[in-house]
Design a protein that fits this description.
Elements: E1 4-8, H1 13-29, E2 34-42, H2 57-85, E3 93-99, H3 101-111, E4 116-119, H4 143-146, E5 154-156
Parallel strand pairs: 1-2, 1-4, 2-3, 4-5
Length: 164
């Protein structure tokens, strides 16, 4: 059936559904499947501004490098939790990329020869009037941008009991 799968995750509750589907169902049914776990840091964070007019370009670049390293460290923590929760995940390859979300998903899937992309279900943003911060990155996939770029089928994981 499928030989190479791209799992997109970013630490949110929705992404946990995709992780659960891949590592408890799809890998169990097809233990030979090659799984790549992709965490994308949306490039839009790089346009963050504040009191930049007070900073030199070197200071600004140093700050951006620090933020990128911090986000990558958080991805690595999430990946470790996935590996601990799902034994099948220990065979997966984990990669983190900074870039535009839709183009990065399609490009990595094509580059790695994926025959299936798995993402989590749509979820409402809880940040607008809620002071409780939700775990994970806030950026969202725009289906109208992603669908024309897809090099293979897209599976949206159903909502399930993930134990998170």
């Amino acid at each position: 059936m499928f030989t190479s799968l791209l799992l997109c995750t970013h630490g949110t509750e929705g992404a946990a559904h995709a992780e659960h589907l891949v590592f408890t169902d799809l890998c169990r049914k097809n233990p030979e499947i090659k799984v790549t776990v992709l965490s994308i840091i949306d490039q839009d964070w790089q346009s963050m501004t504040g009191d930049d007019w007070l900073n030199s370009s070197k200071t600004h670049t140093t700050f951006l490098d620090h933020v990128e390293q911090q986000m990558q460290s958080e991805n690595e923590d999430d990946w470790q939790k996935i590996k601990e929760k799902y034994p099948a995940a220990r065979k997966a390859e984990f990669i983190g990329v900074v870039g535009p979300i839709e183009e990065t998903i399609a490009g990595i899937a094509q580059k790695r020869g994926s025959d299936l992309i798995v993402i989590g279900p749509f979820r409402e943003s809880r940040r607008l009037f809620n002071l409780k911060m939700e775990k994970g990155l806030r950026a969202r996939i725009k289906p109208e941008k992603l669908h024309p770029l897809l090099p293979c089928p897209l599976l949206i994981a159903p909502v399930c009991n993930t134990g998170r």
